[in-house]
Specification:
This protein folds into two domains: 171 residues, Rossmann fold; 119 residues, Orthogonal Bundle (N-(1-d-carboxylethyl)-l-norvaline Dehydrogenase, domain 2), CATH 1.10.1040.10. Helix 4 packs parallel to helix 5, helix 8 packs across helix 10 and helix 11 runs antiparallel to helix 12. The chain has 13 helices and nine strands. Helix 5 links the parallel strand 5 and strand 6. The strands form two sheets. The protein has a six-stranded parallel β-sheet, sandwiched between helices. By secondary structure, the chain is α/β, with parallel strands linked by helices.
Length: 328
């Protein structure tokens, strides 16, 4: 970000005023993070979303819902963005650059590609606004309980101003240096999420074929060396066949997978396990499992051909999806 520092907003606030935080994007993650911040009572919390129903629910939760981004930007000391795509981020950047006051800190928590984050930070800096690249790791269910990890990167002064906010909706956070380091760390984290989720699904399918009680498997294996966070978080959903409402939708996570794949290719990293896992998600999407939770990869794997069973015409045997069969 260079040596430039934004004008500190404290000069226009009283010593007793609560920081004014504006949340942009009130989906699963954004609304959950805002709810935890609101519950602390330490912040004045506002929010905006293009979806009127989300704004209504936000207001009913006791926060201030703004009808337009301009009003929220002008009223906030810190803005937190939680957005589904680079296109949505670009649209929000326009509003923030035009309407947020110089000295505003933007805490950008979305999972986007590195270039998008760096370009966004540069554009906001031109308007005197400091952006922190701070993607979060965790599911929507974890977000509701404050069980998130944030990977925060950006100017030290901006991190200092936003630290209490970040601590209000996370279990822990890591301060990683220059803008962009947060995104790179998130890509590594999501690489493991993708692989571990599919590994958990495959292992539970194996256990089912062996005739084991899957509830016992969750308890016994989950307490051993083979456990993973995804086995503990997604395993119960897989065993119960509980895929909606989604904590992380398949189509949203697919966007993250493409970002990881591109970054790995640019870095020259061989990712055979990730590539195999990504093929399972792609098969799920091709079968119409767009809005389902990513735990549904369990079903995707259970529909694949068994050994010595021919694959349907036109599909790769290693990633194909057959018609649903009755499970033992």
């Amino acid at each position: 970000m260079g040596a430039r520092r934004p004008r500190r907003r404290e000069q226009v606030m009283t010593a007793t005023a609560r920081p004014r935080v504006g949340f942009v994007g009130l989906g699963v993650m954004g609304s959950a993070m805002a709810g935890n911040v609101l519950a602390t009572g330490a912040f004045e919390v506002g929010g905006f979303d293009i979806d009127a129903e989300r704004r209504r629910a936000f207001a009913e939760a006791g926060a201030v819902a703004y009808d337009d981004l301009a009003a929220l930007a002008a009223a906030s000391d810190i803005v937190l963005t939680s957005l589904p795509s680079a296109a949505a981020f670009a649209a929000v950047l326009d509003g923030l650059a035009e309407h947020a006051r110089p000295g505003t800190v933007v805490v950008e928590t979305s999972t986007l590609d590195l270039r998008t984050k760096l370009d966004g930070a540069a554009r906001l800096a031109g308007a005197g606004i400091e952006m922190l690249d701070a993607p979060v790791s965790g599911t929507g269910a974890q977000a509701r309980t404050g069980d998130l990890i944030a990977y925060v990167s950006g100017a030290p002064e901006a991190i200092e101003r936003a630290r209490s906010l970040v601590e209000a909706f996370t279990r822990a956070h890591f301060e990683l240096g220059d803008v962009g380091k947060g995104t790179l760390m998130k890509l590594v984290a999501n690489h493991l999420v993708a692989v571990h989720n599919v590994a958990a699904a495959e292992a539970l399918g194996f256990a089912q074929d062996l005739g084991l009680d899957l509830r016992q498997v969750l308890a016994a294996v989950g307490d051993g060396a083979g456990a993973s966070r995804m086995f503990g978080v997604r395993g119960p959903d897989m065993v119960q066949g509980r895929y909606e409402p989604a904590s992380i939708r398949m189509d949203v996570f697919a966007k993250d997978l493409e970002i990881i794949g591109t970054a790995a290719a640019e870095a020259g990293t061989a990712t055979p396990l990730f590539d195999a896992a990504r093929a399972v998600y792609r098969d799920g999407l091709s079968d119409g499992l767009v809005a389902s939770d990513t735990a549904v990869v369990f079903e995707v794997l259970r529909r694949q051909p068994r050994p010595n069973e021919p694959a349907p015409s036109g599909r790769r045997e290693s990633t194909s999806i057959t018609d649903r069969k009755e499970q033992p």
